[in-house]
Design goal:
single chain; 132 residues; mainly beta; OB fold (Dihydrolipoamide Acetyltransferase, E2P); 1 helix; 6 strands
Length: 132
């Protein structure tokens, strides 16, 4: 049976992107994303937050490193991946992360929380999936 692995998340960065390069020169950025869900439980309004690690490669990684910072909003489209490794003392570890295929920057909120600024044309706050 064929599988399907697609993730779409919208949230806020929990830390500044960390940009590094592989030995062959490919840019890689990693950052955390907080995705919240609000729901009613009886008469109370509750909020649940899920923290997800995001990894981005190539030109998008460089854009993320240059233009995103902690607290910025982003929409991430990608796939779920499990990474496994062994620690120096021999313990096996694993974690799930999202490998982003597209990152869409969300407009920043104006001071006072009165809506969002319109995106500027020369601002990278657009869907970069069209870039190579």
């Amino acid at each position: 049976m064929a599988g399907f692995n697609k993730v779409i998340l919208m949230g806020n960065l929990t830390r500044n992107p960390e940009l590094r390069y592989t030995p062959n020169g490919t840019p890689v950025a990693s950052f955390g994303l907080a995705v919240s869900r609000r729901f009613k439980q009886g008469e109370d309004l509750k909020e649940e937050v899920c923290f997800v690690d995001i990894v981005v490669f190539g030109r998008q990684a460089e854009h993320c490193g240059q233009y995103l910072s902690k607290g910025n909003g982003a929409i991430i489209e990608g796939r779920l991946q499990q990474r496994r490794w062994e620690t120096e003392d021999g313990q096996k570890r694993s974690k799930h992360e999202v490998v982003a295929q597209t990152v869409t920057f969300m407009p920043k909120r104006q001071e006072g929380g009165m809506g969002a600024e319109p995106p500027m044309h020369d601002d990278p706050g657009y869907d970069m999936s069209e870039e190579g």
